[in-house]
Fold:
Amino acid sequence: MDDARQPTLDEIEERFVALLEGRLSRDDADRWACRRLVEDRPEWGELEEWALDLLAGIDLRPGPTADYLHSDAQVRGWLHELRARRAAAR
Structure:
C-alpha cells in the first residue's frame, strides 16, 4: 500500500488479516492506523473510521507484563464484523 494516499477498506481489512496471521505486529498495526487517523486527516467514512479506531488501540496492555487488552478472538470478531458491515453496505 502507498502510504501517501488514503487506504481503501480492502487495505484496512488486510491489516486485520495480516495481524491475525502473524505477518504484522500489533505495534506496527497500531502505528499505521494512528498515522492514518492523525496525520492524514482525510474525510473518513463511518466504517473506515470505526475499523481504524480499533486498529489504533490494538497494542494496548493493562500493565507492562499483562496480555493484550484485546484478545485474538476479539480481533477475529472485529474482522468478521467489518466484513459483515461491508457486505450490508453493498
